[in-house]
Write a structure and sequence with these properties.
The protein contains 8 helices and 2 strands. The chain has about 230 residues and is mainly α. It has one domain. It has a two-stranded antiparallel ribbon with strand order 1-2. The longest helix is centred in the last third of the chain and has 37 residues.
Protein backbone atom coordinates (compact mmCIF):
# COMPACT_ATOMS: atom_id res chain seq x y z
CA UNK A 1 0.00 0.00 0.00
CA UNK A 2 2.83 2.39 0.88
CA UNK A 3 4.45 1.68 -2.50
CA UNK A 4 1.22 2.52 -4.30
CA UNK A 5 0.85 5.79 -2.38
CA UNK A 6 4.50 6.66 -2.99
CA UNK A 7 4.19 5.89 -6.72
CA UNK A 8 1.00 7.97 -6.92
CA UNK A 9 2.65 10.92 -5.14
CA UNK A 10 5.78 10.66 -7.28
CA UNK A 11 3.66 10.71 -10.43
CA UNK A 12 2.02 14.02 -9.43
CA UNK A 13 5.48 15.48 -8.78
CA UNK A 14 6.57 14.72 -12.35
CA UNK A 15 6.05 16.88 -15.41
CA UNK A 16 3.79 14.28 -17.04
CA UNK A 17 1.16 14.91 -14.35
CA UNK A 18 0.55 18.26 -16.08
CA UNK A 19 -0.82 16.34 -19.07
CA UNK A 20 -3.30 14.52 -16.82
CA UNK A 21 -4.36 17.80 -15.23
CA UNK A 22 -4.93 19.32 -18.65
CA UNK A 23 -7.08 16.37 -19.74
CA UNK A 24 -9.09 16.48 -16.50
CA UNK A 25 -9.79 20.18 -16.91
CA UNK A 26 -10.71 19.84 -20.59
CA UNK A 27 -13.16 17.05 -19.78
CA UNK A 28 -14.64 19.10 -16.95
CA UNK A 29 -14.94 22.33 -18.95
CA UNK A 30 -15.86 21.10 -22.42
CA UNK A 31 -17.69 17.83 -21.72
CA UNK A 32 -19.10 17.40 -18.21
CA UNK A 33 -20.31 20.95 -17.53
CA UNK A 34 -22.01 21.53 -20.94
CA UNK A 35 -23.88 18.18 -20.93
CA UNK A 36 -24.74 18.34 -17.23
CA UNK A 37 -28.50 18.23 -16.84
CA UNK A 38 -30.58 20.46 -14.66
CA UNK A 39 -31.60 19.32 -11.20
CA UNK A 40 -30.03 17.78 -8.16
CA UNK A 41 -28.31 14.84 -9.88
CA UNK A 42 -26.53 17.14 -12.33
CA UNK A 43 -25.37 19.40 -9.51
CA UNK A 44 -24.05 16.46 -7.49
CA UNK A 45 -22.11 15.13 -10.51
CA UNK A 46 -20.71 18.63 -11.10
CA UNK A 47 -19.56 18.96 -7.49
CA UNK A 48 -18.11 15.45 -7.43
CA UNK A 49 -15.98 16.04 -10.53
CA UNK A 50 -14.90 19.44 -9.23
CA UNK A 51 -13.89 17.80 -5.94
CA UNK A 52 -11.66 15.39 -7.86
CA UNK A 53 -9.93 18.35 -9.51
CA UNK A 54 -9.49 20.02 -6.12
CA UNK A 55 -7.87 16.90 -4.68
CA UNK A 56 -5.68 16.50 -7.78
CA UNK A 57 -4.49 20.06 -7.26
CA UNK A 58 -2.97 19.34 -3.86
CA UNK A 59 -0.96 16.44 -5.27
CA UNK A 60 0.43 18.70 -7.99
CA UNK A 61 2.08 20.95 -5.36
CA UNK A 62 2.72 18.40 -2.60
CA UNK A 63 6.44 18.29 -3.39
CA UNK A 64 6.79 21.94 -2.40
CA UNK A 65 6.37 21.70 1.36
CA UNK A 66 6.14 25.46 1.71
CA UNK A 67 2.89 25.38 -0.30
CA UNK A 68 1.47 22.26 1.36
CA UNK A 69 -0.22 23.88 4.42
CA UNK A 70 -1.81 26.58 2.27
CA UNK A 71 -2.92 23.99 -0.30
CA UNK A 72 -4.54 21.86 2.43
CA UNK A 73 -6.39 24.92 3.76
CA UNK A 74 -7.71 25.72 0.29
CA UNK A 75 -8.77 22.10 -0.25
CA UNK A 76 -10.64 21.89 3.06
CA UNK A 77 -12.36 25.25 2.61
CA UNK A 78 -13.11 24.57 -1.06
CA UNK A 79 -14.64 21.13 -0.46
CA UNK A 80 -16.59 22.30 2.58
CA UNK A 81 -18.15 25.30 0.85
CA UNK A 82 -18.68 23.33 -2.36
CA UNK A 83 -20.78 20.65 -0.67
CA UNK A 84 -22.44 22.95 1.88
CA UNK A 85 -23.87 25.00 -0.99
CA UNK A 86 -25.64 21.81 -2.09
CA UNK A 87 -27.32 21.52 1.32
CA UNK A 88 -28.10 25.21 1.80
CA UNK A 89 -28.71 26.68 -1.65
CA UNK A 90 -28.92 30.41 -1.11
CA UNK A 91 -27.29 33.37 -2.83
CA UNK A 92 -24.90 33.76 0.10
CA UNK A 93 -23.67 30.16 -0.01
CA UNK A 94 -23.40 30.20 -3.81
CA UNK A 95 -21.36 33.42 -3.69
CA UNK A 96 -19.16 31.95 -0.95
CA UNK A 97 -18.66 28.83 -3.07
CA UNK A 98 -17.69 30.91 -6.10
CA UNK A 99 -15.28 33.10 -4.13
CA UNK A 100 -13.66 29.97 -2.66
CA UNK A 101 -13.36 28.49 -6.15
CA UNK A 102 -11.79 31.71 -7.47
CA UNK A 103 -9.18 31.78 -4.69
CA UNK A 104 -8.34 28.09 -5.06
CA UNK A 105 -8.01 28.25 -8.85
CA UNK A 106 -5.76 31.31 -8.59
CA UNK A 107 -3.57 29.50 -6.07
CA UNK A 108 -3.65 26.39 -8.24
CA UNK A 109 -2.64 28.39 -11.34
CA UNK A 110 0.23 30.04 -9.45
CA UNK A 111 1.51 26.65 -8.22
CA UNK A 112 1.33 25.21 -11.73
CA UNK A 113 3.26 28.19 -13.13
CA UNK A 114 5.96 27.62 -10.50
CA UNK A 115 6.09 23.96 -11.48
CA UNK A 116 6.20 24.85 -15.18
CA UNK A 117 9.16 27.23 -14.77
CA UNK A 118 11.08 25.19 -12.21
CA UNK A 119 14.76 24.43 -13.04
CA UNK A 120 15.30 21.88 -15.77
CA UNK A 121 14.63 21.41 -19.46
CA UNK A 122 11.39 22.81 -20.83
CA UNK A 123 9.41 19.81 -22.01
CA UNK A 124 6.16 19.40 -23.90
CA UNK A 125 4.52 18.51 -20.58
CA UNK A 126 5.46 21.92 -19.20
CA UNK A 127 3.89 23.61 -22.21
CA UNK A 128 0.74 21.66 -21.38
CA UNK A 129 1.11 23.02 -17.84
CA UNK A 130 0.85 26.54 -19.24
CA UNK A 131 -2.34 25.44 -21.03
CA UNK A 132 -3.65 24.22 -17.66
CA UNK A 133 -3.14 27.73 -16.28
CA UNK A 134 -4.99 29.18 -19.29
CA UNK A 135 -7.94 26.87 -18.62
CA UNK A 136 -7.88 27.75 -14.93
CA UNK A 137 -8.06 31.45 -15.84
CA UNK A 138 -11.20 30.69 -17.84
CA UNK A 139 -12.67 28.99 -14.77
CA UNK A 140 -11.72 31.91 -12.52
CA UNK A 141 -13.56 34.37 -14.75
CA UNK A 142 -16.55 32.02 -15.11
CA UNK A 143 -16.95 31.98 -11.33
CA UNK A 144 -16.45 35.77 -11.30
CA UNK A 145 -19.28 36.27 -13.80
CA UNK A 146 -21.46 33.95 -11.75
CA UNK A 147 -20.81 36.10 -8.67
CA UNK A 148 -21.70 39.24 -10.64
CA UNK A 149 -24.97 37.62 -11.73
CA UNK A 150 -25.83 36.59 -8.16
CA UNK A 151 -25.05 40.06 -6.82
CA UNK A 152 -26.60 42.27 -9.51
CA UNK A 153 -29.31 39.94 -10.79
CA UNK A 154 -30.68 38.97 -14.18
CA UNK A 155 -30.06 42.41 -15.69
CA UNK A 156 -26.27 41.99 -15.45
CA UNK A 157 -26.17 39.97 -18.70
CA UNK A 158 -28.27 39.70 -21.82
CA UNK A 159 -29.62 36.23 -22.69
CA UNK A 160 -28.75 34.62 -19.35
CA UNK A 161 -32.01 33.80 -17.65
CA UNK A 162 -30.82 31.61 -14.78
CA UNK A 163 -27.86 30.84 -12.52
CA UNK A 164 -26.69 27.73 -14.40
CA UNK A 165 -22.91 27.69 -14.30
CA UNK A 166 -22.46 26.32 -17.82
CA UNK A 167 -23.77 29.57 -19.33
CA UNK A 168 -21.16 31.59 -17.47
CA UNK A 169 -18.44 29.09 -18.38
CA UNK A 170 -19.40 29.38 -22.04
CA UNK A 171 -19.38 33.19 -21.88
CA UNK A 172 -16.04 33.17 -20.05
CA UNK A 173 -14.24 31.18 -22.72
CA UNK A 174 -15.77 33.14 -25.60
CA UNK A 175 -14.43 36.25 -23.85
CA UNK A 176 -11.05 34.69 -23.05
CA UNK A 177 -10.55 33.66 -26.68
CA UNK A 178 -12.16 36.93 -27.93
CA UNK A 179 -14.52 34.98 -30.20
CA UNK A 180 -17.45 37.15 -29.14
CA UNK A 181 -20.44 35.47 -30.81
CA UNK A 182 -22.74 38.10 -29.31
CA UNK A 183 -25.38 35.65 -28.07
CA UNK A 184 -24.50 36.56 -24.46
CA UNK A 185 -23.37 40.09 -23.67
CA UNK A 186 -22.46 41.87 -20.42
CA UNK A 187 -24.75 44.76 -19.50
CA UNK A 188 -23.70 45.88 -16.03
CA UNK A 189 -20.57 48.04 -15.94
CA UNK A 190 -18.79 45.61 -13.60
CA UNK A 191 -19.54 42.67 -15.93
CA UNK A 192 -18.25 44.68 -18.91
CA UNK A 193 -15.02 45.61 -17.13
CA UNK A 194 -14.35 42.02 -16.09
CA UNK A 195 -15.10 40.77 -19.62
CA UNK A 196 -12.69 43.32 -21.12
CA UNK A 197 -10.00 42.38 -18.59
CA UNK A 198 -10.43 38.70 -19.43
CA UNK A 199 -10.16 39.44 -23.15
CA UNK A 200 -6.87 41.32 -22.62
CA UNK A 201 -5.43 38.41 -20.58
CA UNK A 202 -6.72 35.96 -23.16
CA UNK A 203 -4.71 37.71 -25.86
CA UNK A 204 -1.51 38.46 -23.95
CA UNK A 205 -1.08 35.15 -22.11
CA UNK A 206 -0.72 32.86 -25.19
CA UNK A 207 1.24 35.49 -27.13
CA UNK A 208 3.80 36.08 -24.37
CA UNK A 209 4.01 33.15 -21.97
CA UNK A 210 2.99 30.10 -24.01
CA UNK A 211 4.91 31.32 -27.06
CA UNK A 212 7.99 31.81 -24.87
CA UNK A 213 7.70 28.30 -23.47
CA UNK A 214 7.41 26.82 -26.96
CA UNK A 215 10.58 28.62 -28.05
CA UNK A 216 12.38 27.45 -24.88
CA UNK A 217 11.29 23.87 -25.55
CA UNK A 218 12.58 24.17 -29.12
CA UNK A 219 15.94 25.49 -27.87
CA UNK A 220 16.13 22.67 -25.32
CA UNK A 221 15.49 20.07 -28.04
CA UNK A 222 18.26 21.54 -30.19
CA UNK A 223 20.73 21.38 -27.27
CA UNK A 224 19.87 17.73 -26.62
CA UNK A 225 20.45 16.85 -30.28
CA UNK A 226 23.74 18.75 -30.21
CA UNK A 227 22.90 20.86 -33.21
Amino acid sequence: MKKIIRAFTNFWNEDRSLTVLMLLLMLFIFVFVPIMGRGRIGEIIFKFIYSIILISGIFSVVKRKSYLPLAIVFIIIGLSINWFSEIETTNATLIANNVGAILFNLFFAFAILIKTFQPGDITFHRIEGSVVVYLLLGLVFAYSFHVIYLVYGITAFNNIQGPEFKDFLYFSFTSLTTMGYGDITPVHSVARSVANFEAVIGQLYPAILIARLVSMEFESSIRKKGI
